[in-house]
Amino acid sequence: MKTLLVDMDGVLADVYAQLLKIEYEEKGIKHKIESLYGKMESEAFEDGYAYVHRPRFFQTAPLIPGCVQGLRYLNDKYNLLIVSSATEFPNSPTEKLKWMHKHFPFINWKQIVLCGRKDVIKGDIMLDDHPKNLNYFEGRKIIFTQPHNIYIQNPSYERANNWEEVMNIL
Ligand SMILES: [Mg+2]
């Protein structure tokens, strides 16, 4: 069975939805999603770094549509690991664990890898939204479309625009 590494933020957790919600509630700013294309999260949201440090930011993140059904499918087919850079944000490891247990009770704690960097994690396939993670991975690379990566064309990646496409290619 192949080992599949699946990212959390931007693949399972809808970080953009969370950032857009805070930005609207606190500043009254309603970004058009197209205006965020091609910008890193830190460029797109001026106070984004502060937002992600807030308690409950990760714990209350909405799900990316289709990801629960998608993970259920992948969990039967692969040696599935959820790999997330979490230690940069002190609240996030606990919050991310709670979030995973709440939404994905079929994923056990041994399958969840919370780390500071992903280049030490081994696997056959990586599904991630960030080139910084995909680029040093040696196996098959699948980029999950998010506004920041929408213009990236890299022949070493396969692209999945949504969870339906993930299930079609994996
Ligand atoms: Mg991510």
Automatic annotation (TrEMBL):
GO BP terms in the entry: pyrimidine deoxyribonucleotide catabolic process
SUPFAM superfamilies: HAD-like (SSF56784)
Domain of life: Bacteria
Active site per database record: 7 (nucleophile), 9 (proton donor)
Gene Ontology molecular function terms on file: 5'-nucleotidase activity
A Pfam family this chain is assigned to: NT5C
Family the UniProt entry places it in: Belongs to the 5'(3')-deoxyribonucleotidase family.
PANTHER family per record: 5'(3')-DEOXYRIBONUCLEOTIDASE (PTHR16504)
Protein name: 5'(3')-deoxyribonucleotidase
